[in-house]
């Protein structure tokens, strides 16, 4: 399996964790995939998508990466793709999800106000440094 470097996750596709299991049928591999994949609804077309995915990836690769995705601590259940979508989009090649940010990555009202005030301060400071003396009164009135 690929590892992330110091700068973040790798963009390389993931390889199977283990070798193919000898004697395992495609049906058994699909059942293992179904057990591991985190969403259990809308699986009607999943066997067909799994068969198509086997044309470009090994069963072990699919099942290993479905398990990796299921146990990813950064996966949010509400944003988890249906199994057919995951298979159709070849998402077994996706790198690990980025770490979650506190508050969903959104700024609080206080943080937005602070950022706006800092940007205004920087803009005014920059204008003062480059402005002609007679324009300072106009800048201060803004």
What is the compact description of this entry?
By secondary structure, the protein is an all-alpha fold. The chain has six helices and no strands.
Question: Mind explaining what this structure looks like?
Answer:
The chain has 142 residues and is mainly alpha-helical. The protein contains six helices and no strands. The chain has helices at 26-36, 46-53, 59-71, 83-88, 109-130, 136-141. The longest helix is centred in the C-terminal third of the chain and has 22 residues, at 109-130. It is elongated. Mean pLDDT is 78; it is low at 1-10 and 14-18.
Oligomer: single chain
- Low-confidence runs: 1-10, 14-18
Shape: elongated
Count of β-strands = 0
Number of helices: 6
Taking all Cα atoms into account, the compactness measure Rg is 25 Å
Q: In percent, how helical is the residue content?
A: 40-55%
| Measured distance between first and last alpha carbons | 57 Å
- Mind describing the biggest β-sheet? none
Main structural class: mainly alpha
What is the N-to-C succession of helices and strands? HHHHHH
Mean pLDDT: 78
């Amino acid at each position: 399996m690929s590892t992330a470097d110091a700068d973040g996750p790798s963009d390389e596709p993931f390889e199977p964790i283990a070798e193919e299991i000898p004697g395992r049928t495609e049906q058994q591999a699909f059942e293992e995939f179904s057990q591991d994949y985190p969403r259990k609804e809308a699986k009607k077309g999943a066997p067909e998508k799994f068969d198509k995915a086997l044309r470009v990836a090994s069963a072990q690769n699919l099942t290993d990466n479905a398990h990796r995705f299921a146990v990813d601590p950064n996966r949010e259940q509400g944003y988890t793709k249906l199994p057919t979508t995951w298979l159709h989009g070849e998402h077994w090649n996706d790198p690990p999800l980025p770490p979650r940010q506190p508050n969903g990555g959104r700024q609080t009202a206080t943080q937005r106000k602070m950022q706006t005030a800092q940007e205004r301060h920087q803009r005014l400071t920059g204008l003062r440094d480059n402005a002609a003396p007679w324009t300072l009164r106009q800048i201060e009135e803004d």
